[in-house]
Amino acid sequence: MEEEKKVLAHTPDELVRGLDGRFIGRHQESRALAASMIGAYNTLLIGPPGTGKTAMVDTLVSAFDGMNNFYVCLAADVTPEAIWGPMDVAALLNSGEWRIKTAGHAAEADTITLDETFRGNTVVHDSTLDPMMNKRFKANGNLIPIPVISFFGASNFLPAPGSGYDAFLDRWHLRIYTEYMTDAEMELALTRKFSGDASLGNKFTAPMFTRSDLTAWQDGAKAVGFTRDVQVCLPEVLKAIKAVGLPLSDRTAMRCQDWMKPFAYIDGASKVKRVHLKEVLLLTTWTDEAQLKTLRDTIEATLASIPEEAEDIDLLVQEAITDLQNAPDKTAVANIMARSKFIGKDERTRTAANDRNAILDRELIEATAIVSMDGVKTLEELKMLQKNPNMKKLIETNPDVEDAYKRASVRCIQNLMDRG
């Protein structure tokens, strides 16, 4: 990582590479699934049958030691009880208490996979809204926190807008359209299969990571900041997305910054950059495959209209301050301050420039004093220099000027002796 605070046993890019090695042509899915675990948000994979959507989620979960995934394939006849647990009939008969037996069901899982995501009934979908948003579940009359890190969905289609799924769909933070492999990707996969590679499309044979690894990644991602570039670009891109009529909820607008952090962390970046902004927004603000081209064009056009000068000001400022501290003269100081309007106006660089100019002034005075000392030939001339209050202070406080004064004194005495 760019500014790693501690040495990690494993890094999240190892997880991404592990998934990439098992699923050819699925790098974007690998990144999004890893980011989902790090950021603890929900990811929906959409695409035709046989593209490995649920297999990727199973493989992701198998990478972590002791991780428990609850899987359910939704259908019209699947009930909420099949997901959250049945009523405890014995407790109802014996004590009149209405209890739900959550053991072995979604309320006790680390991850939850809703396969055939939109084939369930309305009651089932409604039962997931609060758990997906707030990681809690109403059981036995109380709202209880549940340990789920992320929900994962796999579907061959997205429901039409206004068909009653809007609230449910908005709970899926990232939406990835997964296509069939290209010819080149299929050829590579077949070559590996012919060579006896049994890892393709399969789970990890042994866990690669611990829960402590995941916790460390989650903490690291939370510490990721934002470049000035992203702070400038994001509001403009979101306004442009809304202007072309693409769906953008307030929830997405306010939380998409958080969803960018894990992607930056995976890349080893200490701050979210423009590339992460684009990556995440392409995975969030669409509800129909046909919208993807409009979304991409809108994001790219908006970013292209914002000058690259609006990059990370903090980084530019720190670089400028370092250069100012080493500037050889005032002309160099002026040139550094003129690099950018951000540098010229920033209080930190202005202070550094003033400090450097003051040092340069002092160094010039000191150098002049030394030259003057080196030019003295008689004790009378030396005494005249000493009468200058500034020169006297320099002799007393500056070692180089003091050495020059001592050399001048020795030289003047020697000249006097030579004259006899």
Features:
two-stranded antiparallel ribbon; 9 strands; 9% strand; 20 helices; alpha/beta; 5-stranded parallel β-sheet; single chain; 420 residues; disordered N terminus
At a glance:
This protein is an alpha/beta fold and 420 residues long. The chain has 20 helices and nine strands.
Oligomer: single chain
Radius of gyration: 33 Å
SSE-based structural type: alpha/beta
Determine the mean pLDDT.
87
Low-confidence stretches: 1-5
Number of helices: 20
Percentage of residues in strands: 5-15%
Proportion in helices: 55-70%
Outline type: elongated
SSE pattern: HHEHEHHEHEEEHEHHEHHEHHHHHHHHH
Descriptive report:
The chain is elongated and about 125 Å long. The chain has 420 residues and is α/β, with parallel strands linked by helices. It contains 20 helices and nine strands. The relative contact order is 0.10. The termini are far apart. β4 and β5 (142-145) form a beta hairpin. The protein has a five-stranded parallel sheet, covered by helices on one side.
